[in-house]
Design brief:
There is one protein chain. By secondary structure, the chain is an alpha+beta fold. Helix content is about 25%, strand content about 35%. The chain has 3 helices and 5 strands. The protein has helices at about 5-15, 15-25, 75-100; strands spanning about 25-30, 40-55, 60-70, 105-120, 125-135. β2 and β3 (about 60-70) form a beta hairpin. α1 (about 5-15) crosses α3 (about 75-100) and α2 packs antiparallel against α3 (about 75-100). The longest helix has 24 residues, at about 75-100. The radius of gyration is 19 Å and the shape is elongated.
Length: about 160
């Protein structure tokens, strides 16, 4: 279920007032629109990979690598936005745990790396923050395989 990690990242970024104000809501999963109409600053986030460990007690632990990239017209703008993202990610974990219904639990979250560069295609700078997020899915959160049982049965007889 940690394939749904984008829900958590979107929750973290869109739920943070400072990030929303700075980006005017320009937060995109995987890829920013390619129509050339995207203005800085903005954020793109994506999952980089997943490692799963299943246990005999029905739990499934995943370690997910996620990149959150902040884009700005200047390096300073991209850096300031990256600092807002760091704060949003730190605050989101607690807010996520307060939700009654969620697809998985967050066990641990660390910023495990980052880099900066100039993006010629967008004529601006970007910072990439890499997070390692450990999640846990218990039996209660797994999709119910029996939920659709009986739907194909003929009910007219």
């Amino acid at each position: 279920m940690s394939l749904l990690i984008g829900e958590y990242i979107g929750f973290a970024l869109r739920g943070d007032e400072a990030v929303m104000k700075a980006t005017k809501g320009r937060i995109y999963p995987v890829l920013a629109p390619m129509d050339g109409d995207v203005r800085c600053p903005y954020i793109v986030y994506a999952s980089n990979g997943l490692t799963e460990v299943a246990t005999k007690d029905g739990l499934c632990y995943d370690t997910v690598s996620v990149s959150v990239m902040t884009f700005g017209k200047s390096l300073r703008q991209a850096e300031r936005l990256a600092e807002l993202v760091r704060g949003a990610m730190m605050r989101a974990w607690g807010r996520w745990e307060e939700l009654e219904e969620k697809p998985f639990q967050i066990q641990d979250q660390t910023m495990s790396g980052g880099n900066e560069d100039f993006d010629l295609a967008h004529d601006g700078y970007f910072l990439e923050l890499t997070y390692t997020i450990e999640t846990c899915v218990g039996e209660a959160q797994l999709p119910d395989a029996d939920a659709d049982e009986g739907e194909d049965e003929d009910t007219d007889n």
